[in-house]
From TrEMBL:
Subcellular location: Golgi apparatus membrane
Family per similarity comment: Belongs to the glycosyltransferase 77 family.
GO BP: cell wall organization
Transmembrane segments: 12-32
Alphabetical list of InterPro entries matching this protein: At1g28695/At4g15970-like (IPR044821), Nucl-diP-sugar_transferase (IPR005069), Nucleotide-diphossugar_trans (IPR029044)
A single MF term (Gene Ontology): glycosyltransferase activity
Sequence ranges assigned to domain Nucleotide-diphospho-sugar transferase in this UniProt record: 109-312
Organism: Centaurea solstitialis (yellow star-thistle)
Protein name, as recorded: Glycosyltransferase
Keywords carried by this UniProt record: Cell wall biogenesis/degradation, Glycosyltransferase, Golgi apparatus, Membrane, Signal-anchor, Transferase, Transmembrane, Transmembrane helix
Domain of life: Eukaryota
Any single Pfam family the record assigns to this protein: Nucleotid_trans
EC id: 2.4.2.-
Length: 351
């Protein structure tokens, strides 16, 4: 009689032991899994895919154009054109490109030139020349025809250009900006110091010295040719510069930058700035005194595109004449008279 209850208790005890064992195994497994996940995420710190990061954005047409034209050090040569600069028997863009063809060690630089077109005709002409091209949207503003110096449309176009160039800096690209009326007769890169101490190297209309020391506030800077390095300091400069657009009515962007310089903006922002000597980076305002050293010639101090084209053509002929006799130590060289640009200030503007 007493053996029957004993036989029943044994299976019951075994069943309870099995239940307890299963519970402990499951509990341990849960803690082990939790501990493993924490350890993995802490040890490897796996980043989220780029597309989910807040700062990520898809590459746009400007990103693609800059990447194609840039050097391995993310430096690009930029110029801006409209219809008036690409049409005619010998358009300004054609003369500009002639400079690269005729210059010393300049032909390969066209591979790093990005032509920014501000109308469809200019863009199509650029594509026809098989250059790197980018079509800049101008929010319905008409920049098609010639914009006479200091006209309202000219000033608007200069500010639009400044806004765009600031965007390029924000994309992380260094650049040389060059007006299309600048002839590149020699490769400027060997003369443009590429180090962290210089943020901006900019041309001037006339190169001034005071007691053999460069006076920053006395330089007549010209925004038609400069090299700038992308940094927080230069981006801030462009932001401050463009922010003055609406409070500087009737002033072109170059004059506003000159005002910033006089107010000490370069020192306040800690910018390393170099002003380019006109012996090397010259113009119609001030000829280079040494044709064996000159690098660029800018059709500054000139009012109309027609006059610029005429005098730049003379300069190319001067350059060809020099190259043909460059080995002659007795060569007496002089630039042709810039008569068209001088007369452009006397002639009434085209209607």
């Amino acid at each position: 009689m007493d053996q029957q209850p004993s036989r029943l208790r044994v299976p019951l005890v075994l069943f309870l032991l099995v239940l307890i064992s299963v519970y402990l195994i499951l509990l341990g497994s849960h803690h082990a899994k939790s501990g493993s996940f924490i350890a993995i995420t802490h040890t490897f710190d796996i980043p989220r895919p780029m597309s989910f990061m807040p700062s990520a954005r898809h590459a746009d047409d400007l990103d693609i154009a800059l990447a194609k034209a840039a050097t391995e050090f993310k430096t690009v040569i930029l110029t801006v054109v409209n219809k008036a600069y690409v049409e005619g028997d010998k358009a300004m863009l054609d003369i500009f490109l002639d400079g690269f063809w005729e210059g010393e060690d300049t032909r390969s630089l066209v591979d790093h030139l990005l032509v920014v077109a501000i109308d469809q005709t200019a863009y199509e002409r650029c594509r026809f020349r098989r250059l790197h091209c980018y079509k800049l949207k101008t929010d319905g503003v008409d920049f098609v025809g010639e914009k006479m110096y200091m006209s309202e449309d000219f000033i608007k176009m200069m500010w639009q250009r400044t806004l765009f160039l600031g965007t390029v800096l924000k994309r992380g690209y260094n650049f040389i900006f060059t007006d299309t009326d600048v002839l590149w007769l020699r490769n400027p890169f060997p003369l443009l110091h590429q180090n962290d101490n210089l943020d901006l190297q900019i041309s001037v209309d006339k190169f001034n010295h005071v007691n053999n020391q460069l006076s920053e506030k006395d330089q007549l800077i010209n925004t038609g040719f400069y090299m700038i390095r992308s940094s927080n300091k230069t981006i801030t400069l462009f932001d401050e510069w463009y922010a003055r657009k609406d409070t500087s009515i009737g002033m072109k962007e170059q004059d506003v930058l000159i005002e910033l310089v006089k107010q000490g903006a370069f020192q306040r922002l800690g910018l390393g700035v170099r002003f380019l000597d006109t012996v090397f980076f010259s113009g119609i305002c001030e000829d280079s005194s040494d044709v064996r050293a000159v690098v660029t010639v800018h059709a500054n101090c000139c009012r109309s595109i027609k006059a610029k084209e005429e005098d730049l053509t003379k300069i190319i002929h001067d350059w060809q004449r020099f190259k043909a006799s460059a080995t002659d130590p007795t060569l007496q060289f002089a630039w042709s008279n810039h008569s068209a640009c001088i007369e452009s200030w006397i002639e009434p503007p085209p209607s």
